Amino acid sequence: MRVLVVEDNHKISETIADYLELEGMETDFAFHGEAALALVAESHYDVIIMDIMMPRADGITTVQKLRRELFCNTPILFLTAKDGLDSKVAAFNAGGDDYLLKPFAMEELTLRLRALASRGPRQDIGTLSYADIMMNPQTEEVTRNGQPIKLSRIQFKILWLLLRQAPAIVSRQEVIDAVWGEDAPPSDALRSHVYSLRNALDKGFETSRLETIHGKGYRLRS
Q1: pTM listed for this prediction
Q2: What is the per-residue pLDDT across 70-80, written as a single tens digit (0 to 9) for each?
């Protein structure tokens, strides 16, 4: 069982790690939110322990990014001295699964970690949807009204960006930056990919979902 401890107090982190290792768990450390994001992007963990008050990126912001940007479905336990109801609501709304107040008993922490790990990864993280279009970025499955749609890698990236911001308009430059970065494609390439994506999404349906807003960009409509 691998546990990521995200805590800026080194003494608390070391105490937790020493105890968990005696319980047969493997631990990694992150002392601020940015480090946690980097570790999760590269490694798998069964449970994450997350402090709230940290430098660079606080725990609430970090968990929001883990859930919404990295599509991390690992159970997360908030460990904090903040006992107000507002803090608890914010923690769970951000994507937390449990909340333990400092000071705490190591035995209770261990029990809660094992309980979270036994539930397995969350099943509600990572799916993007708008109207009748649904995407799972982890499996790269795309459906419209339950019917599977096959997309190229570039079409998938464009749709992912549109779904994340739907129903807002996404500018042409935003799409280029997200899909190609600094290696901008020929002027007609984006138009061609959008055209192909629209055909793939609309095949067999009367209503078109992908709309071009001339001079502004693209959007998904209901």
Answers
A1: 0.63
A2: 889 999 999 98
